[in-house]
Design goal:
The chain is of the alpha+beta class and about 400 residues long. Helices cover about 25% and strands about 25% of the residues.
Amino acid sequence: MIKTTSLPHSPRRGRRVAAVAAATTAAALAFGLSAAPALASGAKGEYVGNALNGGQVTAADGTSIGASLFNLKLEDGTMLQTYCIDYETSIRGGAKYQEDAWENYPGKGEFATPGKVNWILQNSFPKVDAASLAETSGVAGLTDEQAVAGTQAAIWHFSNGVEFTEQGNDENVFALYSYLVENAKKEDVAEPDASLTIAPESAEGKAGQTIGEFTVTTSSADPVALTLDAPEGVQLVDVETGEPVEAASNGDVFGFKVPEGTEAGEASVSGTVSATVDVGRLFKGVEGQPATQTLITADGETTEVSAGAKVSWTAGGGEETPTPEPSEPAPSPSEPAPSPSEPAPSPSEPAEKPDDKPAPGKDDDTGGLPVTGGALVGLVGAAVAAVAGGGAAMYLSRKRRSASDEG
């Protein structure tokens, strides 16, 4: 169940957000619902150079390549050290990166055994310093540079299937590579939790529904503050209880409640929290830029992260207006329709009120048949005579009263 925090509500801010959302909705309706991408989840960063170069390593096919720890600068200035998990793609200066899950690996090669790559990251440099790693691995005199080279070679072995041999490689580098590969084969280490994700990124529905089931995943122990940008009346709610929410914790699920009668439109939510980007998190190049290496974190840091999602909906038709029930039952399909030979009422005659009109084929209150044809003419004449008589009586009464007054 989602936990709700008592965040202060600002009516002025609420009106501003609603106004912005209303303008956005109006534009979407004018040009069709927008196809803007959903807000990306997790930490974002930029490659800003190398943290430490380990020198060249040579693959079994004779190909030599530089092994380095890369600096990834996150949006709030936090610096992460990362290794490459895309042997066949070069890193590009100034490339932008986005945190993502292992299953969304976009690079060349299969990245088929990420659990073994994570074992190496957890048990090698820089998480384990060179002196401790030398003692554990039995590689005497291991330097930081050799530790980087041996670790990167072992990662490429599992991420891209690259084989390294003793030939053409530094003795300590190859010894560390061999140690890491042999021990990683014995154990997988699970993928660490995302710093923050809201999944799925988008959903569709119609007014009158709670749209989407958005799950919050975060490595933070703190609730994630949620900011809604939506037309007036749209709420974020716990999908289990239907209660409004303003914050969510790891594993919580919420949806967008769109009232009936709301015009077609869209809404979005963003969440921000201070969370840890752990060792073993994948970072891929952002969409729309030239290809760059896919990276994986070699150390963990706490940073400010954000995530978002959006929904769109069609009009749900609003509140239904009940159809008035007829005052009289409709004719039964089994009853014959009125004879076409019967004359229709004269246009000069006032229409009868529905409540006074017997249903076709039904007896009236006296038990006789419906009044039609010549009988109807006779009744009309009698009614006219009655009206005339009543008028004469009223005239004579007034005449007598006038004469009495004069006397």
